[in-house]
Amino acid sequence: MNSLFQHVAITAGVTVRVSVNFMPEQSRVEAGRWFWVYHVRLENGRDDTIQLRTRHWRISDSRGMVNIVDGEGVVGETPVLAPGQTHDYVSGCELTVPHGAMEGHYTFSAVDGSLFDVAIPHFPLTAPAE
Description:
Blueprint: E1 7-11, E2 14-22, E3 34-44, E4 50-61, E5 66-72, E6 80-81, E7 86-95, E8 99-110, E9 115-126
Antiparallel strand pairs: 1-2, 2-3, 3-7, 4-5, 4-6, 4-8, 8-9
GO biological process, one term: error-free translesion synthesis
InterPro entries: ApaG_domain (IPR007474), ApaG_sf (IPR036767)
Pfam family, one: DUF525
């Protein structure tokens, strides 16, 4: 997988980096299924320890369809990040058209219990031309 992070957002001292790759071997173009894998790195640049609580994704496709996905944690985890720590995870997205995009935010908690949102950068889902 491409280790270069193409999309970056920084909010409240937390950096979110995203790299996305089209997966032709997992796609079934003839059946109208395109699949991407995205790698996210969360970096705590704050002076306090934080914990990821929830995610909010807005997934759109080139037809204008929008799917909102809300849930606890990421891939079954709610990582705790001390100052300077990072957390990486990989997930995937399937669309019924070859072009779309994803964006959203994570909600983190600080040690004092306060909650804050961290932007996930907008990134395109683009299959190569046939």
